[in-house]
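#structure-requests
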Amino acid sequence: MLYWTAVFFIVALVAAVLGFGGIAGASAGIAKILFVAFLVIAIASLIFGRRVPT
């Protein structure tokens, strides 16, 4: 998921440099959503991940 965040961020940067504001904004928005989803899943997996048997 972090890979796709980086891909959409690069697409947003390239679109912004080439002057496509709408595409750049949409790609940046998708990248933000994917990054937040990645953070939520990463934190959840850290909290609810593997437990050491005692």
